[in-house]
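Two proteins were folded this term; both appear here.
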Amino acid sequence: MPVPCDPDRLRVSRERTHFDHRGRRRRADGDGTGNRGHAALDDAAGRQRCGRQRQAKRDPLLHACSPPPLGYDDSSIANPLEDRKDVMTESELREEINHLPAPLRAQLESAGFDRDALIALAAPLFARARGDATATGEERNRVRGEVEPPRAGDIKEAPVPGSATHERLAAAGLEILRRGELAFCVMAGGMATRMGGVVKALVDALDGQTFLDLRLRENRTWSERTGFPIPLWLMTSDATDAPIRDALARRGAPPHVAAFKQGLGLRLTKEGRLFRGDDGEPSTYAPGHGDLPDALRRSGLLSSFVARGGRYVWIANLDNLGATIDEALLGHHLEQGRDVQVEVTAKVAEDRGGIPVWADASEDGGHVPGSTMPRQSRGHGVVRRLQVLEEFRLPRGFDANAVRVFNTNTFLVNANALLHTRVHYTWFEVEKKVGTRTAVQFERLLQELTGAMEATYVRVPREGDVSRFLPVKDFDELQRRKGQVQAVAKSRGMLRPLETESR
């Protein structure tokens, strides 16, 4: 999710590492990996042997593979075998996971946790703990191959209200809504840490009206206008699920409003062991909004929607109240005929975030049954796609400021493509402060859909009551934006009372 005027958001101070969709670390330039010898003690001969030079705390004039000279006092030198006492192995991590308490194992399994994938993702942690030289996380992060900015005509303009084009597209979009072919999905997961530990869905966006209230009212407005109950799905997390479900029950949410949980991950130490909190229990986390497609499939909501004739899913952040149903944009997506429509908006000042660029993608990562869209194949299983890349993934020397739009994290996706497309997700290693200690967790990003699907990009407004980019990340930003939030909510049918307002 882009964050206006926040240059620290994508700064790689949280070191990230690049992996393929199977959890295997991709080889990067200068990334020397593999089985290499390490300095070890020869108990029989009392001397060292090694397969390569290893840096150690000894006289720099001594050769790393030579026995110490007579009379040399090495009592202060760390024993190489003792150095390795904290080094983890795949089998040891597997055993740690296998011996988790049964309730936690069941919870992880229900959330789609993949033990073998985590073990594979942990391989670079094991290697670093052994002292193996590897490329920096920053370098592993960067995409390979040529990256180009969008070309003329790649970024479409949103239909202008009052124009003939807007009227034509709005009519087409309204018919889709009346046939019950759209579902709206908001991301309400995460760790509930940005607003003082309070679940954001239950924070008052306007006086006495929570973000959840406003989303429910918008849904009711559109369902009544179209004469069809538009499915509203909320992706929750382990931290937000119970409070949101309780709030939905107390508000008497209709049956077409449903919650589903994103995945659950296990944090690791820098050495690759399970990270445990101050209570001694394994530390879990929500692995990023890239979980949404898999979580939606697990829930059964998507497959049943498609079986009933559903064709489109609109995905947006809960806190971006500007990202609402818009019949003209729905008609625009229909007319373009692509798998996904990505909303971008103009950058202002020092805005940072994911940008659309041409880059290589895996050819088999975007196969959609029945799709007839042409693809720019480069051969050898590689195609060129206009896709969203975060700035930390761009090659050195590529000027992100040359692209004057960025991703709003709002996507309109063909339901069949969302259900069936194979996405080669990149997992990123993220260092996270947990109390006073540093943990490692692996996350993925939703915008990687654009590396697997043919995408259309449409520039949407960010000012006034027509804004479609109105993110609220903390209480200070909410206070600054309250006037605009009020105007947008009023213009989109969010301020009407719910039938059940009890809290």
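Next, the second protein.
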Amino acid sequence: MLDNGDNNPHLKAGAPSRRDILLAATTLAAASAIASADAIGPAQAQQSTGGATEPLGGQPPRGATQSVENIEEQVVYQRAFEVVVWSQPAVAIYGIRRGMFAVGIKDNKIAAMSRPLVPRHEFLTANNSTPYISANADLRNGPVVLEVPPATDKGVLYGQVVDAWQETIADVGPIGADKGRGGKYLFLPPGYAGSVPNEYLPAPSPNYRVAFAFRSIVLPGMTDADAHAYAQTLKMYPLSDAANPPPTRFADPWPERISTLPFYDLRYFDDLHEIISVEPVRPRDKAMMQMLATLGIEPGKPFHPPERYKAAMERGTIDAYFYMQDRFIRMREPTRYWSDRHWSSFFLPDSDDGFTWDLSNGLFYDNRSDMFHPGTYYPKKLVKEPSTDYMCALADSDGRPLEGGKNYKLRVPKDVPVKQFWSLIVYDFATWAFIYSPEERPGLGSYDKPNMKLNADGSVDIYFGPKPPPGLESNWIPTQGKRPMPVMRIYGGEKAYWNRSFKMPDVERV
């Protein structure tokens, strides 16, 4: 501790202390400053500051006023908007969990569809060509094992295992770690420190909840029943039961209506609260926790937003939806697959060829929403020639946006260069799901050619719109007046597709 001199025994009695000296010096300096100011005078003082009478900055321009009447409500609106765009991957995959739980398919129980999906199965951009297999798991109870069968002439699986933010922790099948030979995948919870036996393919997750969705490909000579039987050779059980695994539980929810789509109203935040209440916060998302807290979403606390906030939250949710709808078109217009056609790539990967948009210089969640607003389940990396490719028709042959209530035709050439099959699905642009219709026909593909009328050269005309052409009902996809979004899926594209020497004709307005 510094000595101020008051207790110094070497000072003579009556001598000024160090404190007295400092106090006197300070008083003298203050008096000198006042005298100097008096000597300079007001005019000279103003001249020394350049004539300024206000500080630089610190407030808005002169005369500015608050732009909205209720600024607290405006903050809630803005934060709701940003939160909705930021949380698209998590809320979309949670919606599938919510929908499956509603029909009785809980954790570690596999939903194996006996047939391809139809419009009552409300999923984002699903396919109607191959039966799906899916399941959920909660790793708070420990690691979970998934045994995948090898690919054979009796069946093959393609798909992904994702975490709660829909980041792929494992690709499965010929594109995955098992390389189509089958294997035991082990889903590991955050921070797992236990040993992993050599027989397992580890898939560590940064989140507790994980999910998978696989397509059971119907190979030549197979039926849907064959694909369904093959799917039921999967096995799923907790690692703690590995010594004596219980029988895997399966269910076929095909007869059920399954609601999985995000709700773009206040229910959106109910789903998001369910996610935030369980999952760890990643460093990249810490700033968003303040936005969530503004909306009443905090881990460990019930979600009861103030009544005065609800209207602003719903407006923010609705505007975020329209923002992402608009971005879908704008961000894909520059990605035309053929320069003289109006087909654009559905996939928009980040600079690392992934779909997280979690890059070294930031988390670009607007770009991330371009993929997870219309769809789910993407590969960990988009390879140069993926096993499945998607193209979307953003306009007709004259460059006009596709409209609800109009009729359209696509002429598909005889020999589309695919190893497996092609499929055209017409989604409802508003929901990114199948369109409800009495025909329950969301799409047509090469598997349907035996039932369609072909042209003399072997090509096939597929029609979509409110009404079928007379005598061509089998070639028609009903749209019920919805704005159509045609997506062409290429399964196993061949060289002519990848080098673009093959060209798909444009959609024509009829």
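The longest helix spans residues 18-48. The radius of gyration is 32 Å. These notes refer to the second protein only.
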